[in-house]
Specification:
- The radius of gyration is 31 Å and the shape is elongated.
- Helix content is 15%, strand content 36%.
- It has 2 domains: 6-77, HU Protein, Chain A (Irregular); 91-192, Coagulation Factor XIII, Chain A, domain 1 (Distorted Sandwich).
- The longest helix has 20 residues, at 6-25.
- It has 198 residues and is of the alpha+beta class.
- Strands 6, 8, 9, 12, 13 and 14 form a 6-stranded mixed β-sheet that branches.
- Residues 1-74 form the Bvu-2165-like IHF-HU-like DNA-binding domain.
- Residues 94-177 form the DUF4469 domain.
Length: 198
Amino acid sequence: GSTVTKPDILAVLEDAIKATESCLLDGYRVQLGGLCELFPRIKGVFNGITDTFDASRHRVDVGANPGGRVRKTVRVGATVTKVETIKPAPALLEYVDLGSGETNGTITSGNIGTINGHRLKFNPEQDDEGIYFINIDSAAEVKLTAIQRNKPGQLVFLTPSVPGGQYYLEVRTRFREPAELRTGRLDEMLESAGTAGG
């Protein structure tokens, strides 16, 4: 095995960095093998050939170009894979039930509910957009229609009569018209005791 230790390698790298910095400060270009080329440069706009360096308008910087070896290796050996774009969707972070005072737990019919999250706003004129309670067992949907606040970060509404059972909570919306309908679902399941006296 190699007798070169990690401290040895770090010491060599530190010496190389110091030598590179010294050369750049003296105005030289530095070739680091086939890895890269570093060079000093000035950023900013000069107003004609008689203009001089002004620290308020110009600054000294370092530029870099990939080395020929690295560039050739990547050009010849790299493979390209198409990655599917993640489509944005409503993000439901929490459901607050005013009737019970609980968060992400209980649905109280006839009381105010609030959803906090991101990308929540929907178009109430579109029949398939909005807020839905979906019964876990039967898949029956209860669409909410009495919306008091419809904003990207918060939805506030009057909870309708929701039969007893466990439910998912979903928000469905489009981010452009016309566009694909996007659905976001609260991670937690919610429980409804049903209507009072029912």
